[in-house]
Amino acid sequence: MNYKSPLEMAKMACAASQTKTSWNHRQILLLGILGGAYISLGGWLMTCVTYDLPGGIAKFMAGAVFSVGLMLVVIGGAELFTGNCMMPLGALVGCTPMKKIFIAWTWVYFANFLGGLIVVFLLYNTGLWEGPIGVKTLHIAAAKMSLPFGQAFFRGILCNWLVTIAVWLSMASTDVTGKIWAIFFPIMAFVASGFEHCVANMYFLPMGLLLKRVPSLLQAAQLSDAQLQVMNLGGLVKNLIPVTLGNIVGGVLFIAVFYFFIFKEKLLASD
Q1: N or C terminus of the chain with fewer C-beta within 10 Å?
Q2: Distance between CA atoms of residues 130 and 132, nearest Å
Q3: Stated pTM of the model
Q4: What is the CATH number of domain 6-270?
């Protein structure tokens, strides 16, 4: 068999939680920065490819190209907060203390944010956002910051259910090609569906706030007064809080908890 069974994947996830909590601060910071940067580059690519595409084609292509970000994380090696939401499986089995998982989560979350801000700075100084790409970026940011708390929360749940299953499926494959396809379909599904990913928003929202300061783009975007009022640091925080909480629920409940109870006896016996 050239792939792992679900039980073997669950055991690999437990081992991964031990590895991830063993990184020192330097390692986890650098890996987290890379994770945030890779997802941000996927977000930029998504905007470049879809700014002039219609309807459903735009949604499909957005998901198709955004998946590159998670491929870079999983295959290239990086730490991603949303993918790490399956780590509590290790705590449930008893191989990783939950305290260490919370510490790892905190480091990775803020390192992902830093990675996103680095990419925002670099892309802003390229000038490639001038014109319709910049307008598309403003529309994306405005739409995200206009979401009510509940909608952002539930979109976050569904998003990370798919993101963590993408990481989960990638562990089933023993070769790079298999990992690429395992990642592609769930990520394409989450982006095309319009779900919310906190690390992606660590790029989209700051980039939108930065481009809001460009008068020509702001005029071309023709945002409503209501959208302009929420496009600020407060709007960024009001999006990230429910999306992050939803992402945690999606990954912890539907992957870590469900698969623990599915394989509970065998996982505890092997531990």
Answers
A1: N
A2: 7
A3: 0.96
A4: 1.20.1080.10
